[in-house]
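Model it.
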Amino acid sequence: MVDFAPFEGKLYVTGFFTELCGVSANHVAVWNGEQWEQVGSAGLPTPGHAIKVINNQIYCALYGSNTDSNYVYRLNSQLNEWEKVGKGFRNLGSSVPATLYDIAEFQGQPVVAGDFTKIGSQSGYNNIARWNGSDWEPLGSGLTEFYAGVPLIAPHGLSVFEGDIVVAGAFKKAGGVQCNGIARWNGTEWLPFGGGFNKPAYKATEYKNELYACGEFLTSGASSNISGIAKWDGTQWVNPGFSLSGEEVPYFFVHSLDIVNNQLYITGGFSQVNTDSTHTHEAFNICVFDGENIDTLGGGFRAMK
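Modeled.
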């Protein structure tokens, strides 16, 4: 599973699966309280990366496939069928299929982010677009320029903070403004969060009225002790009281920040939580933060060898 969304007392999930607990389910399923069920007669055509509830409707953003176009899908709950929302997303001049990484609600409308430069026959979208009820429209000149050696995940995660849409990813510019992995759109223009990060960000989430970001980064401007996770203090990114490291994993990254029962669940590819320069704690791939303390959940989950 890659993402989940609670809705009307049920839990909807999407990801890389075609079966859950013996039940056939093409990339999307719902837990009805007793068992898993496929959503829609055929499920989704490719694995989903994000599933969100927007205006009491369920939307899915999908990984790319070898087909010409990728689409945002919306569940028609009356028919229990998935419907395409608008035209298809494409990567102009690239052999890489358009992948949609996240979708979020902004001012009552869906915003989708991913690796794409064209929707239908129109170009100039640059990795992020907004649904106006009848068509997809760009957000300024979008997100451009990648970190060296990172050809994908131009944007990876979307959220809302202080009324603005926040996007985190592997881009360096938003609307032509130097942002370095994280930026905000206020409905009119793109704005940076300080100096951003030295490596890609994956997600930003508001928790207890403060904005946290996670990713592959190790520094932000003069701040050099923010490995994998950082908190925005209104002016700059700072250490939230701990950092993460990956000495025992093949590739270090912090992928997700999700709030469950008023706690911040942190997941990714890491092996340690560092609470100061001399104290480290084993925490494989998951830990929980309550705003003051870290719970390593017994050391987390190790990969089977």
